[in-house]
Amino acid sequence: MTVRPDEALHLRLLRLLRDHGAISRAELADRLRIPRPRLLTELDRLAAAGFVSEAGMAASRGGRRSTLVELHPRLRFAAVDLGASSIDIEVVNGRLEPVAAYAEAADIRSGPRAILQRVNELLAKARTDGVYERLDAIGIGVPGPVSYRDGVPVSPPIMPGWDRYPVRELLAREHGCPAVVDNDVNIMALGERHGGVAHSIDDFLYVKIGTGIGCGIFLSGEVYRGTDGCAGDIGHIMAEPHGPVCSCGNSGCLEALFSGAALARDALAAGRSGASPALAERLATSGTLSARDVGLAAAEGDITSIGLIRDGGRRVGSVLAGLVSFANPSMIVIGGGLAQLGHVLLAEIRSVVYRRSLPLATGNLPVVLSELASRAGVTGAAVLASDVAFEQAS
C-alpha cells in the first residue's frame, strides 16, 4: 500500500509525541525538518481529528515562547495479549500509560467465540467504569501464526477453531475502531523495543519460551514478519531428528523438546522414575508437575531439575547460534514464562550461543532476560494499536 507524504508525516509526528511527551512547535519543526507553516497546518488537521491538543507554553529559547503540543488526553487504546492459558488487557492513554488493567485465566482451546466474547466483556466493563468514552484502536496478540495482512490466525497448532477466524474484522466492528492482530512474540518484541531492555535497539531477537517457542525479529527498527507473516517461528525448527512428536504433527521440533509442556513431561518422567527425589516428593504431594516445580526444585539444588533446564538451554542456544550467524543481531532478549527459570537457563543459552556462533557476531552480543517480563505483550499490543490509529490520522 502506498503511503501519502502527509500520512507518513503524521505518523512520525504522533510517534514523537507518544514516545517523548509534550514538545514545542519549534522543536517539532526542527525534529521533523519541515517549515513552520507546514507544521502548523498539519497540527491543525490533527487537532481537528482529535489526536493532538495544546499543552501550555514551552520554556523560552531566546525569543518568543513556543506552544507545547501533546497527544490529546482523551486518546485511548486497548492492548490485548492472549496466551495459551491467560487473557491480559490494558487500556492505555496516548503515551501508552496504563489507565486500567485486567488479567484472568482462560484456555485458548475454548475457541475464538468464547475468548473474544470475554475480551469484549472486559472492555465493556472498562467503558462502564469510565475508563474511556470510545477506543481509538485495538491491538491484540495471539499465540500462533498470524496473517498480519488479513488479520487472522492461520493453522495455529495450539488454537483449535481459530484458523482464519476474522479476529481483526470482528473486534473492529464490535468497538467501532481500527484493530490489528499479530503473533504474540512479535508484540512482545515491540513492547521490549518500546519500553524494555531493547529500547532504541534497531536489530535484535526476542525469544519467547513458554507454552511454545517463538522469535520476534527486529531489523532496521521494524518487526520483520516475512512474506506471509510467519517469520520467527523457531519452535518448529527441527532440533533432534528422532525427537518427540510436536503439536504441529512433525517430530523433533525445538518446542517439543523444550517448552512449558515438554519440561513438565520430562519432570513427570523424572519424578515417577525416582531419578529426582525432589520432583518425586512434589509429585506425591500435588499429583502433577509443572515447569514451575522444576524451577523451584532447581533453586533448591536438585541436580536432575538443573540438568533438565540446562538441556533445554543447550537446545535453544543451538538454534539461536545459527540465527546469530545468519542475522547478526545487536542483542538477544529471552522472555516468556520459562524465562522465570532465571540464570541457569540464561547461562546455558549464552554459553552455547557464544561457543557456536561466529566470533565476529558475538564479540559484542548481550543475551539478556526481558525487562518487561509479563507486560511485554500488552505493551507491544499498545504500540501496534497506536500505530494503526496514527496511520489513519488525517
UniProtKB/TrEMBL annotation:
<dbReference type="InterPro" id="IPR049874">
    <property type="entry name" value="ROK_cs"/>
</dbReference>
<dbReference type="Pfam" id="PF13412">
    <property type="entry name" value="HTH_24"/>
</dbReference>
<dbReference type="Pfam" id="PF00480">
    <property type="entry name" value="ROK"/>
</dbReference>
<dbReference type="InterPro" id="IPR036390">
    <property type="entry name" value="WH_DNA-bd_sf"/>
</dbReference>
<dbReference type="InterPro" id="IPR043129">
    <property type="entry name" value="ATPase_NBD"/>
</dbReference>
<protein>
    <submittedName>
        <fullName>Glucokinase-like ROK family protein</fullName>
    </submittedName>
</protein>
<comment type="similarity">
    <text>Belongs to the ROK (NagC/XylR) family.</text>
</comment>
<dbReference type="InterPro" id="IPR036388">
    <property type="entry name" value="WH-like_DNA-bd_sf"/>
</dbReference>
<dbReference type="InterPro" id="IPR000600">
    <property type="entry name" value="ROK"/>
</dbReference>
